[in-house]
Amino acid sequence: MATDPQFEQTIESPVEFGGVGLHSGVQVRMKLIPAPAGSGVVFRRSDLDGFEIPANGRNVAKVSYATSLMRQGVLISTTEHLLSALIGLGVDNLIIEIDNLEVPILDGSARPYVEGILRVGLKRQRRKREYIRILREVEVRDGSKFIGVYPGEGYSIDYSIDFPAPIGRDNLRCDLEAGDYAQWIAPARTFGFKEDEPMLRNMGLIRGVSEESAIILTREAVVNGPLRFPDEFVRHKVLDLIGDLALAGRQIWGRVVAERAGHAMHTALVQRLLRDRSAWELAHRPMPEKSVALEASTTPALTLSHA
């Protein structure tokens, strides 16, 4: 895991991944390459003369069923699982060399990325890590859907979902400062309902989906169980959130609360936050590591309580 949260990190040596894009169905080869301190996370299209797209809020493009980046008409799609793994492990600087337009879906979670990165190891760099320390609330609302970020210690998340059966309503609270990401968040897979498949395929989506890359549901049951966690669905939404908020360019230092949000609202919060410079400051780590246990509830009608 992270060697020293006070300092930026990259990886010790390159690591490669290959697979299919969830929505495009294209075959993809991708290599993660160590990058200098202060350079951030940058996608590099090796099939387009090394064209680079920094992973930040200025380059957010399509965000309906996945979070995509675009610069000068060049696209990188479905970035959220990889970016989530980088935040979860504390990787600040990285070149992501990719030979097609979509990050490979692998098993539908962030676990393969976590395992690959930990296999080559993390490297501490000399530059002190800066966090986006939240100074006052920033919120995005869309009817009954909601997401907000507030001042707080660590990087805590309180996420609620409400889907049709057999998922129902669920909630999860966690803090990345507890070091629980690799074990409790990264393995949670993306999911979808079988009955939505014709509609999504007509939209040109999920061309690469399989029972090995997503949880498939009917209105009665999970088709390709067993689940990795009883509450795997809400854990995956937290995974997505962490990846989407990575587009702020640095790790959040504060408290995030989400109610039935999704990629579009996650990235809308990033853009609103970046526009409102009075709501945050860049700060070095303000306190030592703390140990906060992950709390999960599978109670169907859980009511959130906030301090």
TrEMBL record:
This is UDP-3-O-acyl-N-acetylglucosamine deacetylase. Keywords: Hydrolase, Lipid A biosynthesis, Lipid biosynthesis, Lipid metabolism, Metal-binding, Zinc. The active site is at H263 (proton donor). PANTHER family: UDP-3-O-ACYL-N-ACETYLGLUCOSAMINE DEACETYLASE 1, MITOCHONDRIAL-RELATED. It is an enzyme of class 3 (hydrolase). Its cofactor is Zn(2+). Pfam families: LpxC (PF03331). Its EC number is 3.5.1.108. It comes from Bryocella elongata. GO terms for molecular function: metal ion binding; UDP-3-O-acyl-N-acetylglucosamine deacetylase activity.
